[in-house]
Amino acid sequence: MNRKPIFDVVRQLLGRGFRPSDIALLDAAIDRADNDSPVPADLALGEAGRALIRKWEGCARRRSDGRFEAYPDPGSATGEPWTIGWGSTGADIGKGLIWTQAQCDARFDRDIARYVNEVRDAVGDVATTQGQFDALVSFHYNTGAIRKATLTRLHRERRFAEAALEFAKWIYNDGKPLSGLKNRRAEEAALYRA
Asked: Mind listing the UniProt keywords for this protein, alphabetically (predicted)?
């Protein structure tokens, strides 16, 4: 869901910009309102998927005071998107933003809930193993491409061996292959096959 129009209206009503606490409250309210989409209730992110995502996202840019600062995407020529905590991005994240560990963890949990729902919706009623689901959530968390990826179509067609091969095609940032993405996709493909 594109939240920008909602945020723009609320910003106009307030007559000021947002504080980080305002953004968290609005995001939570929108998430609660958007959680009525029909998805299989038995699909949830498992520990292997959560560990994989946290391993590759890291909770980076810890400052000497223990808090975390936003940083530009190191693989992007423009630095976009700005990132903080466990790989969180969005219109509310930019240069100068600083969060506590608790804020990083809360945003990760909220973001994961959204990505889990989007993957549930994308796989539909196809029988999906825990490993497949976890790998797809990790892939989507990193790429945002679950709806357009050939791998999703192949999964929905139950062509699982072919779908597993598709992970290796998502290793580029700004047209360049990155070794970190190669390694992450290899781990996702292995989890998908497990």
From this structure: Antimicrobial, Bacteriolytic enzyme, Glycosidase, Host cytoplasm, Hydrolase
- What is the domain count for the chain? 2
Residues 10 and 76 in one domain: no
Which of 47, 57, 69, 187 is catalytic? The answer is 57
Residue 108 CB neighbours (<10 A): 20
Same domain, 16 and 28: yes
Mean pLDDT of 7-22: 77
pTM confidence score: 0.75
Please tell me the distance from the alpha carbon of residue 104 to that of residue 109, in angstroms, as a whole number: 9
Q: What's the CA gap between 173 and 181, in Å, rounded?
A: 9
> Between 17 and 98, whose confidence is greater?
98
Residue 57 a catalytic site member: yes
More confident: 14 or 143? 143
185 vs 5, residue with greater confidence: 185
Q: Are residues 18 and 58 in the same domain?
A: no
